[in-house]
Amino acid sequence: MAGIKALEFGWSGISKVGRLTGKDYKTIKKGITEVENGKFLDKNEKLRKKGAGR
Questions:
Q1: Considering the domain boundaries, does residue 48 fall inside one?
Q2: Which among 46, 22, 26, 23 has a CA at the least distance from the CA of 34?
Q3: Is residue 43 part of a domain?
Q4: Closest of 1, 8, 2 to residue 41, by C-alpha
Q5: pLDDT (tens digit, 9 = 90+) per residue, 16-54?
Q6: Within a domain: 46
Q7: In a domain, 41, yes or no
Q8: Which residues are CB-neighbours of 21 under 8 A, at least 6 positions away?
Q9: pTM of the full structure
Q10: Number of domains in the chain
């Protein structure tokens, strides 16, 4: 989500999103890369695998 917002802001979007969310620029940059490469989680796709919980 942060990557998408940074792209929406355009120039200096990473800085703005970083200040607003407290996320590191590397995290936001990784999100942008995932957006550009089309790597999104599907609605039904889970972030954690079954049995990998806490």
A1: no
A2: 26
A3: no
A4: 1
A5: 999 999 999 898 899 889 888 887 666 666 666 677 566
A6: no
A7: no
A8: 2
A9: 0.66
A10: 1
